[in-house]
Amino acid sequence: MNFSADHAARKWPCNWHATGRLPVLFFLALAAVLTCAASMEASANVPLPRPRPADAPTAAEPEGGPPDQAPPVQEPAEARPPELSACRKALTEDIAIAPSIPPIKGPGGCGGEDLVRLEAIVLSPTQRVALKPAAILRCTMAAAVADWIRTDMAPLAAKLGTTISELDNFDSFECRGRNRVRGAKLSEHGLANALDVRGMTFANGNKLSLTDRTASREIREKVLASVCTRFTTVLGPSSDWYHEDHIHLDLAQRRGNYKLCQWGVHDPLPAVAPLLPAERPEEAPPRPTAEEKAASGNPSEAASEDDDGKPAAPAKPRGKLSRRSGTQ
């Protein structure tokens, strides 16, 4: 082994004790080894817990799940649609085309709930009676109109050899007082509980106006009997001056289930109204003149004639005009 002083001086400098680097590193490494050994010895001396007996009861988890599991987030409940009424469930598309509409709340109690837009009444899969225009009604009123057309009017049209194609809706829901009088009591129209009908159109092109005097009296009387049986209020000609050109139908509730049916089915007016007196027969004796009556000493006879020699019509007592006020 070639070991010389020069070689030793290169590996171990003579001033190593002055720098102090090697002793510091040596002591740090020794401290690390001793610390690791002490830690391993301490770990070996720590006792372990005994195993859990097999018959021990299971620990109940705290309410809401394990502690390390976050509670579930509750989503806001969706708004449930309102439950359908018995009328709405019964008024299916096999009976009428009547989609539901939102409730209406107007001034003075005007409006209502459980409303539909009655567009057509179904007679069969291929036949419908369209309402022109569509009527906004309560479901119960719409169901009554549909039952009236299906049960009464359709068979009546069948006897005439045709079917009904349209129903002329003059008025349905309208937020107003009775007879459109300012300050009057709220009309059943304002409650969506009334329908004004002018007439109907048949599939053969013929039309029936319910207030037409020239229309068949027999048919109009049958219509009158049917509506007065089904609806609580029926107003037409002769009820008041507001219902001379249409028929008002509603389901107003009154004490004792009282019904009001006022519809006069009139005959056609005569071609020449009997407004003038009949002509005097030629064989009748001539009337005395005013001078002759005055000369006879009977002034009452002279005063009972007009200036033209004709008998004056007896004066009728004047009284207050009375007319029944309309209820709708």
Q: What secondary-structure arrangement, pairings included, does this model have?
A:
Layout: H1 5-11, H2 16-19, H3 21-45, H4 86-90, E1 96-97, E2 100-101, E3 104-105, E4 111-112, E5 115-124, E6 127-138, H5 139-159, E7 164-171, E8 194-202, E9 207-209, H6 217-230, E10 233-235, E11 247-250, E12 260-262, H7 290-295, H8 299-303
Parallel strand pairs: 6-7, 10-12
Antiparallel strand pairs: 1-5, 2-5, 3-4, 5-6, 7-8, 8-9, 8-11, 10-11
Helix pairs in contact: 5-6
The percent range for helix content is 25-40%
DSSP strand content: 15-25%
Query: What is the straight-line distance between the termini?
Result: 137 Å
CA radius of gyration = 52 Å
Q: Assign the structural class, choosing from mainly alpha, mainly beta, alpha/beta, alpha+beta, or little secondary structure.
A: alpha+beta
Oligomer: single chain
What's the total count of β strands?
Answer: 12
- Envelope shape: rod-shaped
Structural write-up:
By secondary structure, the protein is an alpha+beta fold. Helix content is 27%, strand content 18%. It has helices spanning 5-11, 16-19, 21-45, 86-90, 139-159, 217-230, 290-295, 299-303; strands at residues 96-97, 100-101, 104-105, 111-112, 115-124, 127-138, 164-171, 194-202, 207-209, 233-235, 247-250, 260-262. Strands 1, 2, 5, 6, 7, 8, 9, 10, 11 and 12 form a 10-stranded mixed β-sheet that branches. Helix 5 packs antiparallel against helix 6 (217-230). The longest helix has 25 residues, at 21-45. The N and C termini lie far apart (137 Å).
